[in-house]
Amino acid sequence: MSNDAGKEMHRDEPMLNDPIKKPQAGDYKLNIVHLYPDLLNLYGDRGNIQCLRMRCKWRGIDAQVTECNLDDKLSLASADIVLLGGGSDREQQIVCTRLQQVRPELRDYVEDGGTLIAICGGYQLLGHYYDTPEGRIKGLSLVDLYTEQGSPRLISNIVLRNESLPDSNANALSSVIPDTLPAAAAGSQSSAIPTALPYEIVGFENHGGRTYIGNNMPFGKVLYGHGNNGKDACEGVLYRNVIGTYLHGPLLPKNPHVCDLLLQRALNRKYGVSLASFPALDDSLEMAANRAVVTRFHSPLAP
Ligand code: GLN
To answer: What is the pTM (predicted TM-score) of this model?
Structure first.
């Protein structure tokens, strides 16, 4: 388990440590791995991949997407962002056997500061187990959490806020993000970029599982909806450069700041460069969609 800066920087050319050099087209490449889309693909997880790809493309960052299906051999040696999507209990049961086989690869990737987003069924599988009336689905134990099925299903639009989540929307906060960051920061418990997500996170949730994250940091506080378990007003989990969340729908197109958070972390780990060095994107349409959900479901007057 290493967050050694030297190790990270030799993965690609070290030129990006130079804060004066501005990004040039073709200088940067991110490898995105979509894990088991043949099984874990509920509610538009592919839309999240599309969003990551397009936000790279618009900035001149080359994004390569690799789909790793159930029978494919997994290698995360050159992975920069991994997505594990949602699935039904039945699909989770099938995929969990495979996940146990690739667990060492995934654990090393996560502990090395790799960026990973796991959604709904995938989020539950990050933890120790998911208990259902049909039996226990064994998880990856990458994050200290567990899930138990309850009734009724927790189905709702959902609005979150996380004012303390480090990292940022590169567009909105470019002035406060340093051009280069210490590479060692990428693997710290929560990243060291001292800025907050400026906008609410919106999505849709539909899960029978109730997830308990112990002392881990949640992805956000629930302003509207159910969240992890309908009781503690927490949603999702943050661990190193991992985000686990029940939000799908898909999540990233309506929350470009979350998409940029993933890109920021991946770029920082691989190149030591900030997303703020790249051209700002016009997110007015995306944020109008985000604000429409916030306004509809969360009254600004509510506590
Ligand atoms: N099968 C899990 C549950 O119902 C996750 C569902 C999902 O991914 N939407 O809790």
So the answer is: 0.84
What are the pLDDT digits (tens) for 162-215? 876 654 444 433 322 232 222 223 333 333 333 346 679 999 999 999 999 999
**Beta pairing class for 29-35 and 62-68:** parallel
Whole-angstrom distance, CA of residue 177 vs CA of residue 193: 7
Residue 183 covered by a domain: no
CA of 278 to the centre of ligand 1 (A): 36
Number of neighbouring beta carbons within 10 Å of residue 25: 9
Number of structural domains in the chain: 1
Q: Using the atom order of ligand 1, give the atom closest to the CA of residue 40.
A: 8
Between the CA of 90 and the centroid of ligand 1 the distance, in Å, is: 10
CATH number at residue 95: 3.40.50.880
DSSP string, 219-279: SEEEEES-TTTSSSSEESEEETTEEEES-BSSHHHH-HHHHHHHHHHHHHHHHSB-GGGSP
The range of the structural domain enclosing residue 271 comes to 2-7+25-178+193-297
Residues having CB within 6 Å of any atom of ligand 1: 42, 86-89, 92, 120-121, 206-209
pLDDT in tens, 23-39: 676 799 999 999 999 99
Rounded to a whole number of angstroms, the distance between the first and last alpha carbons of the chain is 42
Q: Is the peptide bond before 279 cis (omega within 30 degrees of 0)?
A: no
